[in-house]
Amino acid sequence: MYSFDMVRPTSVADAVAALGQEDAQALSGGQTLIPTLKQRLAMPSVLVSLSGIDELKGLSVSDGVMEIKGATTHATVAREGGDYPGLAALAANIGDPAVRNRGTIGGSIANNDPSACYPAAALGSGATIVTNTREIAADEFFQGMFTTALEEGEIVTAVRFPIPEKAAYMKFEQPASRFALVGVFVAKYADGVRVAVTGASNDGVHRWSAAEEALSANFAPDAVEGLSVPADNMIADLHGSAAYRAHLVGVMTKRAVAAAD
Its Gene Ontology molecular function terms (predicted)? Predict the structure, then answer.
C-alpha cells in the first residue's frame, strides 16, 4: 500500500464535497478498490468512505419497485430482499461471507466489472440507477467493460428494481473467485422478458435480444433451443475459450428460465 488520506463523511452532501478534492476516490465496500490499491493499479491521494452514511443504507418496497440504497451490503439484500426472490438469491451467492458482508450494491454497479452479478440484475430488471444528481436507466448506464455513465464525483445513491412476475439468475462460477464465467439474469414482466448476460463478452454486461423475443412469446427453456450467440466478441482466457462462453450463454439462460419463480 501507500500513504493516502481517509475522509469519512456522514452525509451524501459531505461526500460529494470531499470528492471535489483533487485525486479523490469514493470507497464503498472496497472489495475491488482495496486489492487495486494494493497492486498500485490506482493511487488516489484521498479516499472518501461511504460506509458511515446512514442515508445510503437499507432497502424498501413501494408500488412494485424495490429500492436498494447504494451502500447496502450484499448480505442485507440476501437477508431482507425476499420481495424480489431472484435478486435476493443472486446476492446470497456473491463471493463468500466476507465479501457479502462488506461489498455493496452501489460499489458493484459503479465498478461494472465484466463478470459481476449485480450489473446483470440491474440490466435484466430494467432498473433505474439513482445518483446524487440524476436518474439513469440501466440500458443507458452500462457502457462497456468497467465503464458507466457516471461522471466524475457522482455517487450511486440507490438502485430501483421493478419487481417482475418471475426471475432467476444462473451463473457458471470460476471456482476460486466465484465470479461468473458466464451469468444470465432472466426477468419476466407483463410487457415482455428481459435477458442480461454477464461474464461472457468483451463489451461487458449486455442484453440478449433474440432470447428476449423468444421467451416473451413462450417463457420456457425450450424457447431458446437453437438460438446461439456469436463467439467472435466473447472473452477468451485460461478459464474458457470464446466458443465455450458462447455455449454457456445458452445453457445458463435455459437454467435461469427453468428456475424462475
Answer: FAD binding; oxidoreductase activity
Q: Which of 113, 147, 162 is where one domain is finished?
A: 162
Look at residue 1 and tell me whether its pLDDT is greater than 60.
Answer: no
Q: Do 38 and 118 lie in a common domain?
A: no
Q: Which residues of 54-84 are buried (b: 16+ CB within 10 A; e: fewer)?
A: eebbebebeeebbbbbbbbbbbbbbebbeeb
Give the phi and the psi of residue 108 in degrees, each rounded to 5. -65, -45
Considering the entire predicted model, what is its pTM?
Answer: 0.94
Phi/psi region, residue 36 (left: phi>0; alpha: psi -120 to 50; beta: rest), is: alpha
pLDDT single digits (tens) 97-106: 999 999 999 9
Task: Identify whether residues 100 and 178 lie together within a single domain.
Answer: no
Whether residues 96 and 132 share a domain: the answer is yes
Question: Do 123 and 63 sit in the same domain of this protein?
Answer: yes
By three-state DSSP, how is residue 187 classified?
strand
Strands (DSSP E) along the chain, which ranges? 5-7, 24-27, 46-49, 59-62, 65-69, 128-131, 135-137, 142-144, 147-148, 156-162, 166-173, 180-189, 192-198, 206-207
- Co-location of 133 and 176 in the same domain: no
Pair (132, 226) in one structural domain: no
CB 11 within 8 A of CB 19: no
Query: Residue 220 and residue 256: Cα distance in Å, rounded?
Result: 10
Residues 75 and 119 in one domain: yes
Residue 32 CB partners (closer than 8 Å, separation 6+): 107, 111, 113
